[in-house]
Structures are given as C-alpha cells and as structure tokens.
Design goal:
This protein is α/β, with parallel strands linked by helices. The chain has 3 domains: about 210 residues, FAD/NAD(P)-binding domain (3-Layer(bba) Sandwich), CATH 3.50.50.60; about 110 residues, 3-Layer(bba) Sandwich (FAD/NAD(P)-binding domain), CATH 3.50.50; about 120 residues, FAD/NAD-linked reductase, C-terminal dimerisation domain (Enolase-like, domain 1), CATH 3.30.390.30. The chain has 13 helices and 24 strands. The strands form 5 sheets. Strands 1, 2, 3, 4, 5, 6 and 17 form a 7-stranded mixed β-sheet that branches. Strand 13 and strand 14 form a beta hairpin. The radius of gyration is 24 Å and the shape is globular.
Length: about 500
C-alpha cells in the first residue's frame, strides 16, 4: 500500500492550493479528485460567472451607445468555453508536468473515502479500487448549491448556478430567488445583456441585507434602471414548471398575492458542504450545526485530519479556501503560526456597479454599539471615473472615533472598486494609522485617489471641502445610535 505524507481529497481551488503548498515542504503528496480538476471554481462557479459578468459589462457599455445592440448566445457560449478550457488546461498540464518532474507528487482520479484516520479507499469509475495511506489528510471536497424541498429543480428550466451551462439561448424572462451576492450577480449579468426581463425575489425589505443600506440602494437602483423588477418584502408561496415555463406565486407583507410566469428560474439560496459518502462517520470526524465539517483553525477533531474551503462553509470564497488549505499545510509541516483571522477579508461583489469591501460595515458597528467616524466621497469627484464616464458610486471609510482614527472598514462601490480596497485592507490587518497612505503620491488619474481623498478628509486637509460639496463629500460621527454630520474630522 502506497504511503504519503499528505493525501488531499478534492481538486478544487482549496485542495489544489494545499497540495502545492505541501510540495514546498518537500512532502510526498497525493491529490484525489473524483470529477474534474478545478472543481466548481472552474466549471460552475467563480470562473464561469465572472466571465459572464465581464462579458455582460462590455455589452452594457456598448448598449449605452447603441441601445439596440445584442450579442448572440452562441458567442456568449464560445467565450465561456474558451475561458474554462484555458484554465482547465493550465491546471491539468501543470499537474501532468509535476508528476513527471518530481517523485513527490501524484494525482489520482476517483472517489475517496475513509477506512480509518490514516487510510483512504479510492474507487475508480470502472469499479476498481485501491487503498492508500498518509500521515495527514486534508478534506477539500467543496460545496454545491442548496436545493429547497418544495421546488423541483431540474437544472434546465428551474435551475441553480450549476444549470447556467445548460442554457442554449438567452431567456426572454428570468426570476432569481435569493437576493444575496450570487442572486444579485446573476440578476446583474442578465440585465446587462439587455435581452432578458429579470425579476428578483427579495424576502427582506432590501437586497444584500448583510451590507449597508447605501450599498444595497445603489445596486438596487441600477438593476431597476436596467429594467429589472425587484419584489421587495415578498415570500415565495410556490414555484413550479407549467407547460415548459415557470410559474411562481408571491405573498407580500400586506397580504397581497401575485402570480407571474417566466421562461426560467434561478434558485440562489446558499450552498451546502459536500461531506456525504466520504466516510467521515467511520473515523468520527465531527460536523457542525450547519452540517459542515467542524474545525479549529482548519484542524478537525481528529488530530491528523484537516479541512479547508467550502467543506467548512466558514466563508465560501475561493481566496479564503486557498488560504485555509495553505494554512492547514503549514500547521502540518511548518513552524508554529498564529491562527487564521476572518475579520478583515477583502471581497468583491460583481454587480453593477462593482462593490468591494473589507472590515466592518456601518450596520455591524451600529448593532454592536461601537462609536465610529465615517467619510464618504462620491465617485463623481474622481478624475479617472470622470474620464471613464463611470461616475456612479462612492468610497466610504469607517474609523475609530478617536484621534488615532484606526480604520475599521471600507466600502468602495463603482468602476474598478476592487483595485481600491487592498491598501486599506493592509492598514486594517496591521492595525496602522492613515497618515502615511494619505501622504503617498498616488498615480493620477486613478480610482485609488478616491481612497487618498477620503483619508485627507479624515485628517482635515482634503482638496474638496465637505462643508462646500455637501452632496459629494460627507463626514459624520455615529455614537449611541445617533449619527451627526460634521464639517471636518480633523
């Protein structure tokens, strides 16, 4: 029986990253994947949805000049297939060359299941199997879209994000159930293409309920300007296929009901961990209250078994999963390191406009009763945004309500928002002040100059004065549930 230092179960972003990190320590590694290298991150998740978003953004820009412009669905499919093929080929060739160039790495295709805490059974598609063992095992089996028991999902007419690849033409109408990030992203994509009437079912009073109201408002307004209908405060009574269409019935808070028929439905109500049929119960690996693998800083209750990525559903993001896997491997083979922190992770929401965030939000701080200062700068004051003719959006930085003004969080909403976030994320992570970043010479014209101007506002030395441009620059202090506007924060 072949023995390894590490067996990684799952070849998605987390498993792939973990296997590669183990090679840095000169460890003998086996990576096992039952379907396709790259997992949902390549085929049904981030890569495909973001490729669609990028293409839809280009189409939307063309439509601003040529309102009747349409892109053929064949062309959309071609772009998607090219993106998937490029990434898949890159990852596959990398693994093949690794196997030839080093005797430390091995890739095996099959379904892995635990026999005991050190032994794995790999079952091939043809029914053959073999046993392998390792000192350490990393579970990186990912997740899948959540199904609802009262909705018959066939991934063709009523689908999850996994079913998008089954489309053969642009639907004339689409309803999205779920107004979180993924639901809003797909509503944005199809609205951008301009060929689909989009409906978005929002059980809460506003979309993106985990985000600040000003962020949700600008995204919601944009969707509605693109022709989307948002069913605010609506509960879904039923959703079913009828004569090749989707009929759904809503009930609003005032008791009113409404029945609407559309071509297809997209159900986006979260994800569940892939933890079944891998023998976790055989070795006693504990699950948490969400039905995912329990962990303490990536280590399960079985000391030599670790977990990373969506299998924990701690935070279902590719960058988080990769970081968890690398962290787990260092815990196995490297020096003692401090625990992972999930407090200040930079995230991007591919909406219209783009949203980037890091740290705490205003509503988080208000709920916790933490006093804070806020500065907001409208995108229309930024030279790069003006040059791009993309002035919809704002920068918002939140700091402690004291002279140190330590950054607690930031939101950037607008074109190139993601490029503006990381410097502030670094300041939060290292618990540094704002003066050095404010005094740096930023490139001009650039979106990140908006960050600099926010910091200058905090220091009382902004180019535009908030007491003059009150509609463009806002400064206020929030304490004891009350927010008070002020002219300067210095």
């Amino acid at each position: 029986m072949e023995h390894y230092d590490l067996i990684v179960i799952g070849g998605g972003p987390s498993g792939y990253a973990g296997a590669m990190r183990a090679l840095d320590f000169k460890k003998k590694v086996l990576l096992v994947e039952k379907k396709r290298i790259g997992g949902a991150g390549v085929y049904d998740g981030v890569l495909t949805s973001k490729t669609l978003w990028e293409l839809s953004q280009k189409v939307s820009s063309i439509r601003e000049m040529i309102p009747d412009y349409k892109i053929g669905f064949d062309e959309i499919s071609k772009v998607l297939k090219e993106a998937v093929f490029e990434r898949k080929t890159q990852m596959t060739v990398h693994l093949q060359l690794l196997q030839h160039q080093t005797n430390l790495f091995q890739y095996d295709k099959g379904t892995a299941s635990f026999i005991d805490k050190n032994t794995i059974l790999i079952t091939k598609e043809d029914g053959t199997s073999k046993k392998v063992s390792a000192d350490n095992i990393l579970i990186a089996t990912g997740s899948r879209p959540r199904y609802l028991p009262n909705i018959a999902i066939d991934e063709k007419i009523i689908m999850t994000s996994d079913g998008i690849k089954n489309l053969t033409e642009m639907p004339e109408s689409l309803v999205v159930l779920g107004a979180g990030v993924i639901g809003c992203e797909f509503a944005t994509i199809f609205s951008n293409f301009g060929q689909t009437k989009v409906y978005l079912i929002d059980k809460a009073d506003r979309i993106l309920p985990f985000e600040d109201e000003d962020v949700a408002d600008i995204v919601g307004d944009s969707l509605e300007k693109q022709g989307a209908t948002i069913h605010h405060g609506a509960s879904l009574k039923r959703m079913e296929e009828k004569n090749g269409k989707v009929e759904y019935e809503l009930e609003y808070k005032d008791g009113k009901t409404e029945v609407i028929t559309v071509d297809i439905a997209l159900v986006s109500v979260g994800r569940v961990a892939n933890v079944e049929h891998i023998g976790l119960e055989t070795v006693g690996v504990k699950l948490n209250e969400r039905g995912s693998v329990w962990d303490d800083d990536t280590q399960t209750n079985i000391s030599n078994i670790y977990v990373a990525g969506d299998a924990t559903t701690e935070m279902a993001l590719v960058n988080v999963g990769e970081r968890e896997a690398r962290h787990a491997v260092v815990r196995m083979f490297g020096p003692t390191i401090k625990p992972l922190s999930y407090q200040n992770i930079s995230t991007i929401m591919f909406l219209n406009p783009e949203v980037a965030s890091v740290g705490m939000s205003e509503q988080d701080l208000n709920k916790k009763g933490i006093a804070h200062k806020v500065v907001k700068l409208d995108y229309s004051t930024n030279a790069r945004a003006i040059a791009m003719r993309k002035t919809k959006g704002f920068f918002k930085i939140i700091v402690t309500n004291d002279s140190g003004m330590r950054i607690l969080g930031m939101r950037a909403v607008g074109e190139h928002a993601s490029s503006a976030i990381q410097a502030v994320a670094y300041l939060i992570s290292t618990n540094q002040g704002i003066k050095e970043l404010a005094d740096m010479m930023h490139p001009h014209p650039s979106i990140i100059e908006g960050v600099q101007e926010c910091l200058r506002m905090l220091l009382g030395k902004s180019i535009y004065k908030p007491y003059v441009f009150k509609d463009k620059l806002k400064c206020y202090v929030c304490e004891n549930g009350t927010c008070t506007p002020i002219d300067t924060l210095a």
